[in-house]
User: What shape does this take?
Amino acid sequence: MMSSNEFQEWAEKLNLSKEAVTEIQRIRQSPPSRRVGGGKHNVSGRYSSKKMGLTIQFESHKVELPTIYMLEFNDNVLEYYDQPPQIKIYYYQSKTNKRMAYMKTADFFVIEKDKAYWIECKTEEELIKKSQKNPERYLRDNSQWVFAPGKTYAEEFNLDFIIRSSSEINWNLQRNLEFLEDYIIKDFIPNDSQITRIKEAIQSAPGLYLNELILSSENQFSADEVYALIAKNIIYIDLYNDLITEPEHVKVYINKEQYKGFSIIEKTSRDKKKSHTIELKSGNDILWGDTTWTILNFDYLSNLVFLYSKNENKNVELPKDLFESYISEGYICGINSYDPSETDEVKKMISQASVKDLEAANKKYEIINKYLKGEEIELTVTERTLRNWVKKYEDAKELHGNGFVGLLPQTKKRGNRNSKLPQDTSELMNRIITDSYETIKLKSAKQVYRELLVKCEEFNIDIPSYQTFCNAINNRSKYEVEKERKGKRASYKYEEIYTELEFTTPKHGERIFEIAHIDHTELDIELKINGNESKRPWLTLMIDAFSRRVLAFYLTFEEPSYRSCMMVIRECVKRYSRLPNYIVVDGGKEFSSVYFESLLALYSVHKKQRPAAKAKFGHVVERLFGITNELFIHNLKGNTQITKNVRQVTKSVNPKNHAVWTFEKLNERLDLWINNVYDNKENPSLNQTPKEAFEESIMMSGNRPQTYIPYDETFILMTLPAPEVKTRKVHPGQGIKLNYSYYWCEQFRNPKIEKTKIEVKYDPFNLGITYAFINNEWVKCISEQYKYLNGKTEKQIKLIAEEIKQKNKLYSKNNTVTAKMIARYIIESEEIEEKLTVENNEKSQTLKTELKVIENVKVSNKDFDSLEMNNRDDEDELEIFGELV
Assistant: This one.
């Protein structure tokens, strides 16, 4: 990015007005005006730009992402910004000529060395529709799309507004840039001796193919060195027309000038040669000598080619071997033939004929051809039939210009295929299906049919059968019916496959570590934790889309969060010392966290987000989840398959009562299953195992050592997640409390730090340490449990930490239950106290009344003393009982 002084120099060089400079500065200093999201079929994401030093949003990876690549690797582009601030544009309605205004957000604003402009990216189909709907805004000018209101706004500042159509994208160049990206943005240049060897290999055979160059290296240089020289323009291939991922078709030259020279020679020699490319297809024309012939048919059984010349009005049959020898010797060559698909019914008639029809026509033609030539034939049919064949042949030649089609059997349609249902009945039935069956009430077909019977009787029209009614429902679009009855998500499985009309980029990439998917699933098994407690674990996977190899996995009891994402990335780097160029995720909030996106941006990893509720966009990882459960988890004791039918679950079959697997054991077996079983199991879509595909791709696409990420303390610190509450209070003499344990470091002795809240991070793989942000640096803190964890390997600590964390949660949960029980007991005790107090008061009042009665009747002293002692005993008993309560 330009500094303030560099920007001022650039503006002065272009002689921009004060208003234009102010407008551009506003764009440069403003954040993106909105956060983009994908549409129904769009994959949105973030591109980590090295040129800009920040992430650039794209709303579609088929239109906007290619534009980003062109801007990122164009040396003339100094800066570019996504979703610049809104601009107010005006236009006149074509019908009313009324001046209208609205706020517009362009996709990008670009600053080049000699100009600046806004960019709006659209598909060609979308631009055509918009030009028809709003011709005053979108129009074509000399084969270039123009957004008139935007261009008018930009001209006020002596700037420009450009429309970038999908039809302008060179997909060969796009795919080559993606393949070479690691070599373009990373500093990786071979030493002089390697460069010399590569150039000598090319110079000895200019125009040799790329795969020949790589395989002929004899360990003197690697594929990485070759790709690096191509990326740095030290050696040359045609990036605009050749695909580097098809090395068997890519020619390599010393430089661009050598490429141009050989291209001119090749083009000249090619023009001198006649085209011998001929397709054995009915209706195609060939040039045999000076005569034009039409291919009538090619009979695979007899290996004969049947030709017809309209000029000479004759037919010829040639054996295929002889026909091909005439082509190779130059006697027969292809010409710009007339395409029957654009004419009459000839092609339609031949294409609709079955194999048996063509065989019958060929036999008829052989007989007729000999008959017309006057040759002797052995008839297997009557003369009348033969005359009938000849007449059909001549009529077809006159009518269609080709007699062969007249010999095709004419199959007559039998029976009346039209509906015999009265129109009134049909209309009523369709209306009832729409209004009553296709609703969210989910009425059964039988119930709706009863409603139809009532309506038919009411309007006195014929009643259709129940089978006819059901056929009418089944003939409707299954997708539309499910959508109306159960909603979009339920109907998604019946949605038509989204197809691209032109090839752009392979959806699974062209090499390993180009695209990877990350997703989570809750495994169908109960794991034993402590005593009778059990819980289902969550599995997070990162899978390479090209080879289908599992790059990393992370098992935890915690529900999906950005912490799981960070850990699976950490596992990938630990195993392969690199990360994919693109990571594909769904719309989960854990994938949009600041920590996760910052980590990707730091290591130049781009993020793609699948459309919401479109599982087919992530079928690579979704399919693996299904395979893992079906082939591994469902064969273990304690699996939860039966819980899908809750009514069938009893105590004797409840998976919680049969949980025997522990977290540590399952993690160990899952690791072995992924690496030893799945990795060596042939994938039907690849016709090879993930391991074979991975190793084969590495050999041809290179190891790319410049992308390696060291698995050191710096990387580990970057992948450490924060707890849900990101700060903790420093307790004097104890430190910070995290994950049910206290952590301590010497900096906590500082009185200024005590009793303050500081930001913390923890290591899910090692609960023995955590990190605190003190005085602008991360400081390691030691746990009070460190003595139990010290000396363990990272894998052991990871497993121990996960179980400790889950057991602590259960302990905390049990404490909460106990506290509730104590509180409930106290409340019940207070209620009892109130009852006892009332009873005590009533009894005391009764005693006082009795005393008064005794006094009034003047009982004897002896009786009185006895009564007084009894009263005191009663009062003492009440007092003691009250104290007990």
